[in-house]
Amino acid sequence: MVGRLGDTAQRDYSHKLRLFNALAEPELRAAIDSLRLGRGMRVLDAGCGTGEMLGWLAAAVAPGGLAVGIDLSSSHLDAARAAVPPGALLLQADLLRTPLAAATFDLVWSVNTVHHLHHPAAGSRALVALLRPGGRLAFGQSSLLPDMYFAWDARLERVTNEAVRAYYRDRYGLSEHDLTAVRGLVGLLQHIGLSGITARTFVIERLAPLDPRAHAWLLEAIFRGTWGERLRPYLSPADHEELTRLCDPQHPEFALRRPDFHFIQTFTLVVGVRR
């Protein structure tokens, strides 16, 4: 099955996943801490990627707990095997059709995954079925608010964000509603019948001089070609030229060398309880 954003068992973006987990480790660990997991609990990381968060979840339920990670991508699971502690289990599976027993877990944790599904409500219900009564479903999602890359030029940031959305609409055949529906996670959890819904947003904030993890993530995931030529059709020639200068490590105006560089990204955790 191919996901909404082109995901298959062969797709590999493990390098970017590792870089994001390294960048946001303090905030992701704080989000996990906010769940107050206990010894002996059983947790599932649905869409575990390269496994760093699965390892933190496993530590939170040790000793005596169980941490299981599932992911569609074989490459991601290969990377995760080097990151997870002994005793954590890894399975390759489509989260709509897992081999896991119903009513097994105290927590299902799923980060930056639900928006990849063609039918988020169906996928969410499949995850809820894996929870015991009173268990919790925790959806984590980056960037429910627009990220800030160009603090000194809000106009360029706005037109760049609009160009990115236009690119994704054209590449994947998505509507504006498809691209923004992930912001409705509270409503999604209400729709599938969860109770006690909470939401908390953690701010990932970095400024110059950037630490190596922040620099590595921003360079690889954003500034090294992610915008680049693919946005040219959606920007004016002047805006594309300016964006190119800011994204070129060889140019004197390269954004990540600016002394006033200030990056903000949000990470939101929405949690509901199975009745």
Describe this structure in words.
With 275 residues, this protein is an alpha/beta fold. The chain contains 10 helices and 7 strands. The protein has one domain: Rossmann fold (3-Layer(aba) Sandwich). Strands 3-2-1-4-5-7-6 form a 7-stranded mixed β-sheet. Helix 1 (14-23) packs across helix 9 (212-223) and helix 2 (25-34) packs parallel to helix 3 (52-61). It is globular, with a radius of gyration of 19 Å.
User: What is the CA-based Rg, rounded?
Assistant: 19 Å
Can you list the strand order of the major beta sheet? 3-2-1-4-5-7-6
Strand content bin: 15-25%
Could you give me the name of the CATH homologous superfamily?
Vaccinia Virus protein VP39
> Helix proportion of residues, in percent?
25-40%
In total, how many beta strands? 7
As for the CATH topology, it is: Rossmann fold
Summarize the biggest pleated sheet: 7 strands, mixed
Helical segment count: 10
Task: Write the topology of this structure.
Elements: H1 14-23, H2 25-34, E1 42-46, H3 52-61, E2 66-71, H4 74-80, E3 89-92, E4 105-111, H5 120-128, E5 131-142, H6 154-172, H7 176-180, H8 185-191, E6 195-207, H9 212-223, H10 237-247, E7 262-273
Parallel strand pairs: 1-2, 1-4, 2-3, 4-5
Antiparallel strand pairs: 5-7, 6-7
